[in-house]
Amino acid sequence: MTDVYExxxxxxxxxxxxxxxxxSLVALxxxxxxxxxxxxxxxxxxxxxxxxxxxxxxxxxxxxxIHWPTLLTLVMFPILLGSxxxxxxxxxxxxxxxxxxxxxxxxxLVPALIPIxxxxxxxxxxxx
Length: 128
Hints:
The protein contains five helices and no strands. It is mainly alpha-helical.
């Protein structure tokens, strides 16, 4: 019984941490977008990834799946994941239409969801 309890405590802690990280990304992204006004947000969290809010929602749903593994969360996870990825692509197309070459340069320097090229954006002068 102790092993099951400890497993449950660890999954709750890990799930909560993943959800909290996701909530932080959503909040940071929202804050930057609303401070940017009509301009393209390319600083702060947007200097590292183009879609921090969608990554945040993905992490929140992942955390829920870890924290509360039920049939419902298992079924909803791929549906929500697909929806967030679709929305990120749609938003990218809309931003390309709205900001043109500025967004294309930004898109070429900053990854959409997985922050693996952060040094490149700094070296290329993406000041934001």
